[in-house]
Write a structure and sequence with these properties.
elongated
């Protein structure tokens, strides 16, 4: 599935990205406070710091803004996880690094993640499948990290176990965003990452090959 195009009248790609980043920042707070349907494009333009006329030079509909919010989350996560795929491939260290980076992004983009899940139902029919596919691609990156560990002899897992673990990691990262209001009373982000990683690796210990043999 190709990236869904959001049309703009302006041809300068750097300016388009800059203005859309401003829109996303303004819209997220409005969507969080008022909801998608009660927020107007005029309010989004004001929050972004420019006129309604300028807004429509970079998007066509309010749904475009929500789509850009969703897409920005996944692009950010994907960029970090792709970097980790190139580092220490096939090691438990690469898995730990990928988990830590994902949880940190979920913390940094908590507002965007909450808005995305609250309002994803408002996406147009052509945008929704793309956004859902992006989420599965992120889960797939954790599957790749786990498969690399299997191929490298670090873990012994079936394909179904790999898929389940990838989904578990993904949900644990989102849990920090959804339940941060409660979890922060118990842990710092670093403590949460450390504890979740410890529990993950403890659970995986039974799937690690036994080193050496009987003496």
């Amino acid at each position: 599935m190709n990236k869904r195009e959001v049309l703009a009248s302006v041809k300068d790609e750097r300016l388009v990205q800059k203005r859309r980043d401003q829109m996303i920042k303004g819209a997220v707070q409005l969507f969080k406070e008022k909801g998608f349907h009660r927020t107007t494009t005029r309010e989004i333009a004001k929050a972004a710091g420019f006129s309604i006329g300028t807004l429509y030079e970079y998007i066509r509909t309010k749904e475009d803004v929500l789509y850009l919010v969703c897409d920005s989350i996944y692009d950010h996560v994907s960029e970090l996880l792709q970097q980790d795929l190139e580092l220490k491939q096939g090691t438990l260290e690469s898995l730990k690094l990928g988990v830590a980076n994902f949880f940190q992004v979920m913390d940094e983009m908590q507002a965007e993640v909450l808005v995305m899940y609250q309002e994803v139902k408002s996406l147009t029919k052509d945008a929704l499948p793309y956004v859902l596919k992006k989420e599965m691609e992120m889960v797939g990156m954790f599957e790749t990290l786990l498969r690399k560990c299997v191929e490298n002899g670090e873990l012994v897992l079936t394909e179904k176990q790999i898929q389940m673990l990838a989904h578990n990691i993904f949900v644990q990262g989102q849990m920090w965003g959804f339940r941060r209001w409660a979890l922060r009373k118990l842990y710092t982000l670093d403590e949460y990452i450390e504890l979740q990683t410890e529990l993950l690796l403890a659970g995986l210990s039974q799937y690690q090959p036994q080193k050496g043999g009987a003496g």
